Amino acid sequence: MSLRRDGRLGAAWIVILILLPIAAAIIALGIGRMPIAPGEVFDVLRSAISGGHTANALVEKTVLQLRLPRILLAILVGAGLSVSGCAFQSLFANPLATPDTLGVASGAAFGAALGILLGFDLIGIQIMGLAMGGAAVTLTWLAGSGKDRGGLSYIVLSGIMIGSLFSALISFIKFAADAESQLPAITYWLMGGLDKANYRTLALGAPVIILGVLVFMLIRWRMNLLPLSDDEAKASGVNIRLLRGVTVVAATAITASCVSMCGQVGWVGLLIPHMCRMLFGNNHLSIVPASVSFGAVFMIIVDTMARSISAAEIPVSILTAIIGAPFFIVLMRRSGGWRV
Predict the structure, then answer these.
(1) Contacts of 257 (CB under 8 A, 6+ apart)
(2) Which of 148, 232, 283, 316 is the most exposed, fewest CB within 10 Å of its CB?
(3) pTM of the full structure
(4) Which parts of the chain sit beneath pLDDT 70?
């Protein structure tokens, strides 16, 4: 299987990228401390679609109420963070750029921690995370785009500073939190986890992620121009400032929504885009949809491991780091160095 001459994916790759997340999700529905046979999983899903119920109420509840929401969240978070990382790596021409380059993840994490401190419910925590994530990027943009307009490098430096600021505020929240109840909740939430996924939180966060991913799918043929200078982009007839603005807004919204629902999850936005570039090259016509698919599959696998390896659920960010760091080193060595 190979790419077409114009850089687009061939029909075989399109089918694979569509089926991979679906297959991974169906398999994951049957894996856990209570194994469920594939036939029972299909019966539950078929009954849910038709509006009926299965004979085994426990299996139905496990599949539909416990596993399905967090698998849907894993798909959204994996796809969203992967495509956001891909966009930022191209925008800043930096192979180490991640979805938190502009401080959005730190801002969203601060908002969620503040919500926990104030005693908000899950929806309130999610709204606080979204609001603070947007505030962090706004501050980054205002700080890095002054009269001198030092370019994207100033934006990156501002993102680092704003991210550090919100990290310090998170530490202050921990210091002020009750050591018996609030501090453990904040600490565990910041480690990242999909265990609190439910259909209410998905209803609030999923549309933001889906809309952001769709934006990147629609503009992916122009994203090859992101690393170009202003003069080079003008020669191609593209409004590069508008393109960069759309990229930042979409990636920010996706990242803030992901962090507000499941905490900070690292490595996904760094590892998956590099893996896609190694397989498909640097044309965004192919690496954007590949990042969406592989990111979703990666998060499904990691979350399934997190809830199945031991009786006590392992925070997702621990597993993504344990898996991602060695795998990323292997990818870097096999690809002959950094590429964007």
Answers:
(1) 80, 130, 133, 205, 208, 209, 212
(2) 148
(3) 0.90
(4) 1-7, 55, 145-151, 331, 334-340
